Amino acid sequence: MSSWFRQGIDAIMARDPATRSRLEAALCTPGLHALLFHRVGHFLYHKRMVLLARLISQLGRFLTGVEIHPGAVIGEGVFIDHGAGVVIGETAVIGDQVTLYQGVTLGGTGKEKGKRHPTIGRHVIIGAGATILGPITIGEGARVGAGSVVVHPVPPHCTVVGVPGRILQAPSHGLPATGLEHGELPDPDAHHLGQLREELARLQREVNALVAQLEGADPPPKAAAGGVH
Predict the structure, then answer these.
(1) Distance between CA 38 and CA 214 in Å, rounded?
(2) CA-CA distance, 156 to 94, in Å (whole number)?
C-alpha cells in the first residue's frame, strides 16, 4: 500500500501543476482518495465480501464524486484529475501511469456477462468527458480527446477524437504520451469540411472550364430557308 500511495503522490506532482507540495497532493486530491477507497474495496471484493466492498465503493463515490466498481483492476501511478463524474466499470482494467480527467466513463454496452468494460494500456491519457465503451483495448501510450466516444480498439501511441472516435494522429512509436494538448488535437469535423471545400472548389473549376469551352465554340449552323416544316 505504501508503495502504491507514493507512486500516486508522484503522479500528482508530475502531472498536476496546481499541486505545490506532496502534503497538498495527499490531502486535496479527490482522485487519490477515490483510488484509496478502491484499494480497500477491491481487496474485500476478492475476499468475496462483495456487499461490504460495494458499500465502501459507494462511500468513496459520495465523498469524492468518483465511482469505481470494486471489481475493476487499476495499476500504479494512475492519476484521476479533478475526479468529478468519473465512472469505472466492474471489468475495466487500467494499466500503470494512466491519466483520467473529469467526466471519463469506462463503461459497458449492455447486460452481457463476462468481460464487458475497456482495458486501458499503460501511459494512456483520456480527456475530460470521454466515453469508452465495451470490452475494447486502448493501446499503450494512446490519447483520447475530450468528449470522444470510443467503441472500437485503439492501437498503441495513437490519438483518437470525435463522436464516434476516429484515429487521426499517430505519435512517434514507442514514446509514451506526456500530455493532452487539447488545442493542438486534430478536429475531424473541420478536416472533413476542409475536404468538402476542396472537392467543391475542384468541381467549380471543372464547371468553369466547360462553360469557357462552350462559350468559345462556333455557334451551331442555322436551318436552311424553305426547309420542311
Answers:
(1) 75
(2) 14
